[in-house]
Write a structure and sequence with these properties.
Blueprint: H1 6-16, E1 20-23, E2 29-32, H2 34-39, H3 50-53, E3 54-58, H4 64-67, E4 74-79, E5 86-94, E6 97-103, H5 108-115, H6 128-163, H7 174-187, E7 191-199, H8 201-208, H9 210-227, E8 233-236, E9 241-247, H10 252-266, E10 270-272, E11 275-277, E12 280-287, H11 296-312, E13 318-320
Parallel strand pairs: 12-13
Antiparallel strand pairs: 1-2, 1-6, 3-4, 4-5, 5-6, 7-9, 7-12, 8-9, 10-11
Helix pairs in contact: 8-9, 9-10
Length: 323
């Protein structure tokens, strides 16, 4: 019978069992299959002793000469260097060489991920091909699900944002204000509440039209946002009514300065269509620390009462609620 050459064995094994090592009589790797080479792309395996590349965990043998006396026995190995991937193997003599055929065993899923393996890295008849198809299908389904969830989450966030936003001014609306007040009160956080109403706004609407009124409201909204801190809240709760929630402020002097700045800026003419729109603002102010415990409804009612006290005193001023 004609003896099969080593080159022919290599060509055959590279196709049928691509994760294998061809060994000489001393246990030195003469050739490594393409999949085995892929597991150690930065290291040339040919020329290295098998037991320098792998640790044999079962059976516990320390010499290659002992290993070749166990043909066909299932071997448990792991790479000696990191990552210490665990492998299963079978050793069989094949003419002038010995073949060690390897597989991943139960670590196959982790190994496919760690080494970026594809169906081309396994024998065409290997059942692992079917596993890879299932993994790829699962990955595709999970990616599609992830993208769908991201779109749904984005849509949910947009819907929630719209539900809490005043469409004309971009400020928070009354619903958002209620949520913020409930959160602050529930957390026991000190805050001040300002109820602001525009003076003479009806005259702007009546004489210059609703487009001018909308422009004024948008400009007023920008001014209020500019005059408070990033963590504070400005909400439009009515046609020309606004509520400002200022967290952590407990001093009336500080609140008076903020209210005075707002009034001064809002008294400046707002230009629209070649004309000047003139409004001012009246404010009523309450502090959460004056309530034991704070109740949102009571604070809003008291701020409203303080607001109308400001209007009765001549408008364009602020007042604190007085028991």
């Amino acid at each position: 019978m004609e003896q099969v050459s080593e080159a022919a064995i290599r060509g055959l094994m590279d196709v049928l069992c691509p994760m294998y090592a061809m060994l000489d009589a001393n246990g030195v790797i003469r050739h490594a299959g393409p999949t085995l080479c892929k597991l150690r792309p930065q290291r040339r395996l040919a020329g290295l002793p098998l037991l320098d590349v792998f640790d044999l965990t079962r059976p516990r043998l320390s010499r290659f000469s002992q290993l070749v006396e166990c043909p066909g026995e299932k071997l448990h190995l792991q790479f000696a260097d990191d990552p210490k991937t665990a492998l299963k193997g079978v050793l069989m003599p094949c003419g002038p060489v010995t073949i060690l055929n390897l597989s991943f065993g139960i670590s196959v899923l982790d190994s496919i991920r760690d080494y970026d393996l594809t169906n081309a890295d396994f024998a065409a008849t290997d059942m692992m091909i079917e596993m890879l198809y299932l993994i790829e299908a699962k990955s595709a389904a999970m990616e599609a699900s992830r993208k769908l969830n991201m779109r749904l989450q984005g849509a949910k966030i947009a819907a929630e944002e719209q539900a809490f936003t005043d469409t004309l001014t971009g400020l928070k609306n009354r619903r958002a204000m209620d949520h913020i007040l409930a959160r602050l009160i529930g957390a026991g956080q000190a805050f001040a509440l300002m109820h602001l109403d525009l003076d003479f706004f009806k005259a702007v609407n009546d004489t210059m039209g609703h487009a001018a009124g909308d422009h004024v409201l948008q400009r007023v909204a920008r001014i209020m946002v500019e005059e408070v801190r990033k963590d504070d809240t400005v909400a439009r709760v009515g046609g020309d009514e606004f509520v400002l929630i200022l967290t952590g402020i407990q001093k009336r002097e500080t609140l008076s300065r903020i209210a005075s700045r707002l009034i001064a800026r809002l008294e400046k003419p707002i230009h629209y269509g070649g004309q000047d729109c003139r409004v001012s603002a009246s404010l009523g102010i309450v502090l959460s620390v004056d309530y034991d415990p704070p109740v949102a409804r009571d604070m809003l009612e008291d701020a409203d009462e303080a607001l109308y006290s400001s209007k009765r005193q001549g408008r364009a001023r602020h007042s604190f609620h007085v028991e």
